[in-house]
What we know:
Blueprint: E1 7-12, H1 23-42, E2 46-53, H2 58-67, H3 71-88, E3 95-98, H4 102-117, E4 122-131, E5 136-137, E6 143-146, E7 155-156, E8 173-177, E9 185-194, H5 196-209, H6 216-227, E10 233-234, E11 236-238, E12 253-255, H7 257-260, H8 263-272, H9 278-282, E13 286-291, H10 297-311, E14 326-328, E15 331-332, H11 343-349, H12 354-363, E16 371-373, H13 375-405, H14 417-426, H15 429-438, H16 442-463, H17 465-468, H18 473-493, H19 499-509, H20 543-564, H21 576-580, E17 584-594, E18 602-607, E19 612-617, H22 625-628, E20 632-636, E21 642-644, E22 647-649, E23 652-653, E24 655-657, E25 663-665
Parallel strand pairs: 1-2, 1-13, 2-3, 14-16
Antiparallel strand pairs: 4-5, 4-9, 6-7, 6-8, 9-10, 11-12, 14-15, 17-18, 17-20, 18-19, 20-23, 21-22, 24-25
Helix pairs in contact: 1-12, 2-3, 4-8, 5-6, 5-10, 6-10, 12-13, 13-16, 13-18, 14-16, 15-16, 16-18, 18-19
Amino acid sequence: MEKNFKRTLITSALPYANGPVHIGHLAGVYVPADIYARWLRLKGEEVLFIGGSDEHGVPITLLAKKEGVTPQDIVDRYHGIIKKSFAEFGISFDIYSRTTSPTHHEMASQFFKTLYDKGEFIEKESEQLYDEEAQQFLADRYVTGTCPHCGNKGAYGDQCEKCGKDLSALELIDPVSTISNSKPVLRNTKHWYLPLDRHQQWLEKWILEEHKEWKSNVYGQCKSWFDMDLQPRAVSRDLEWGISLPIPNTEGKVLYVWFDAPIGYISNTKELLPNDWEKWWKDESTRLVHFIGKDNIVFHCIVFPAMLKAEGSFILPDNVPANEFLNLEGNKISTSKNWAVWLNEYLVDFPGKQDTLRYVLTANAPETKDNDFTWKDFQTRHNSELVAIYGNFVNRTVVLTNKYYEGAVPERGELTDYDKQTLAEFSDTRNEMDRYLANFRFRDALKEVMNLARIGNKYLAETEPWKLIKTDPERVKTIMNIAVQICANLSIAFEPFLPFSTDKLRAQLNIGRYQWNEIGSVDLVAAGHKIGAPELLFEKIEDDAIQAQLDRLERIKKENELKNWKPVSVKDTCAFEDFQKLDIRVGTVLECKKVPKADKLLEFRIDDGMGCRTIVSGIAKWYNPEELVGKQVCFIANFAPRSLKGVESQGMILSAVNSDGSLAVISPSKPTRPGCTVE
Length: 679
């Protein structure tokens, strides 16, 4: 049964404060949440949009240790960077706070204590790895060792980055503490667990029966967890950085970050509205919507609701519209590998183009599957859609109104059939947008707005008022009046998506902010109203700006290849006598050419000191034939001849494999007579 809600509380996943935010964060969570909040506000609804930084947990302590600073130093730095980035991109939080705030510490402690006093936790002792030199228990990320699945000797205690398997530190072979480089020992420790298995029955009914309208990726992931049966989950851990457990004899134990962080939504609301926060969290007439990425589905659909239900006085989320992931140029975004477009760096390279990124990320949003961001698509959408369609229509309208009528909107005369057809085309835009936005289909909603701009652009292009002004000036008045009305409609429809260019549009039209339900009206701007001077909403992005971004990514890719490169394992031992069987010699390249119909092969004519021999080598991808002529190379002279693409090869040229997979021919360090042997 559908509920009648009085207000909507919107939360967005708390970004982790150990680095800046990137386009994946923006596309997956924050732009959709902002569009939704702005839309509801334009409709005149009561809305609260909550954000904040997640500032506890092991990765922050690791980074602090690496940099020789305190965890507080780390979170202070990145909280400031993140908060500024969100503000610069127009993410319209009502509050953006943090989980190190006093309000949050008090709220999270009280939440734990309430559940503890009600007997909602179970206590368990278990063996965990302990560093005797550092005198502390080791979180999984503080342990490295050999992966039991693939043999990688640098696997972390929570995951092997080589094979991708999830691990626990106890599974590692020959574990080592990253704090002291010593071998840890096993010690008993006590922790508190939220018994999710006790909550499975009502969670299954609530999600699988009562919320079938949730997105398929959310519904499906929850069902898969239920199918595996829920297990108790620790809510505490042995760590100094975090919120201390508010119960006796628990020194050195803090709230696990997954338990602590979602309570941040509540504490941030209380920080904003200290006397009125409960109506947003405890009144059944409030609708709670969590915007997250797919990696947070389980926490927001199963774990956090179980916490809220166990506490007993809080509402549960009505929807959790999780998005999939955004990739970058065909590869997964990786903060550790710097494979990302960082928001704080984007505006240095593209000043004033916040709306371009908001537009592209919405148009290509990973709503139902992982999508790919490419710089070429970014440029194309900006130049072909924002500049050539939306910007072109607005600029023509404002320029012509100023040119023909000194900026005063002309009276509208009798409408032609074409005028009526044009107005009818956008009369239902608002209903379509409402339908899409209510179902979190932001890409489709944006298409409807751009279609409205297309209608306006097409209308001016086909009526050609610049030609009619001399022969039928009365007709031009009607055309320009309609064009201004469409521009005013665009100032409403684009507001949730492109707030910065919408402000510029309103300034040019000299109008205020309309209400959402006025979309479709043809009387938004009165005749005689004076509009402002024309100014381009968007300027073209040139090829060199895009090439600079592609070059940057190419440099990062090569840096990562060098950083991650490790020599291949030494092959099995062979007898010296076996090595002596190889006849390795030096030769001088006399001729070199490509082998027809074989992209990888080059044909060499080599002076081997006794005459001339032909060798075919698969290095065409890394060398042009002409650069090898005159070069000395090492080759194996006593391989049996073999035919390659119809050419008899009489040996093998030796090459080294670089970290990026490229080949480099091996040559003597100084000139050597052809035919000399390699000993």
